[in-house]
Predict the structure.
Amino acid sequence: IGKHGHTIDSLQYIANVITHRSGGEKRVTVDAAGYRDRRRSTLEAIAVRSAERAARGERVALDPMSAVERKIVHLYLQEREDVETASEGNEPNRFVVVSPV
């Protein structure tokens, strides 16, 4: 899996490049022992805790994460009316900020 999923993310990227170069249109997802589902659950839990802190008036900056992980957080919190999310920083240190509305 690699640290923070970097190894399977890299394998997935390579598999998608090969698929698209050979004319394929489907996306390839590489997973190991349910890592992707566990990581999604962890990110959603982090998003909830951060949203609760932000709803109390605190601006919360999360750790840097990949674009895919940032998207999970943004989508999970988009229905909440009491907080908003934004990505800040530069790759590879781009991170999500959860702020009160």
User: Anything to note?
Assistant: The radius of gyration is 16 Å. The CA atoms of residues 15 and 89 lie 28 Å apart. The mean pLDDT is 94.
